[in-house]
Sequence to fold (328 residues):
Amino acid sequence: MQGKPVFNVPAKTVINFKSHFDKKLLCDGITFTAGSACNFSCSFCYVESMQLKQQEWFKSHGVEYPVNGHEGVVIRTKDAVEIARKQIMSKPEDFRMAKKVIYASPKVDVAGNMELVKETVGICKVILENTNWDIRLLSKSNLLPQVSTLLSNSRIERTINGPWQSHAERVMYGVSTGTLDDGLAHAFERGTAKVSKRIESLHWLQDNGYRTYGMICPSLPQDDYIEFANKMAEAIRADKCEHVWAEVINVRGDSFVKTEKALLDCGFTDEAKRLAIVANNKAAWEEYARLTFLAHARIIPAGKLRFLQYVNNDNRKWWVCSVGAVLL
Fold:
């Protein structure tokens, strides 16, 4: 996939019933992920840092790491749909009947290509048939309309009592991007769909009555934050999104170093310089985060904006007073 070797690795779980993504307000602490390494290659990706302790386990199950490590492979979970089914059916009916939100995916893209789209649809069908949960899907591809279409064409066989809702009422779709520039995105998001195509797919979902949300992240330091926020809100049609999440680039492993190099290699020297300034100066990084938040907050209502911000003892007081910020 995308020129990477693919490894199908056995695992016991696909669904995490006690994840911390509830703190980001993306779900009720339930997530699913059908793999551990993506077919995309984003310089800011945090998954490798999450998986460092598991690399020996992966190697013992046949994963051969190339020179560039985790980023150079695709790791899929063998029989992911059936594992998800067994996990769900192991839960009592009152838990499955409760109205909750499950999010996908914390580790790999849910729609990186059509093979992965079909796998995601299979897991979504299991959830729709056996629970009353809503599903939140996030992608850097332009294939989420294919997910919605395949679900529309599928026979959803309910095995649980309770009020029936169609998949269109229970699945929320979002595309992630921190820029509207196709060339800039390509510099640090290799293998992903063009941003313009992602936005087109979001518009298609909105125009066809599907639930959508915005995900403006991760965004780089800007020359004009207000202009950036205005253009992003207009592009994603923030008024048609149920909520809008936003986030700046955070330190995750070598994310800053890799992203700066990717920008320089593709000729985005101004963007690389701005990133270098905030990467090496805590005060500058804090100003970058605040200016980004304030720009979004001017445009997106507080009840809709969910700006993800990591806080500490030094900056907590300011962020606590910032309506629309989600403190992590």
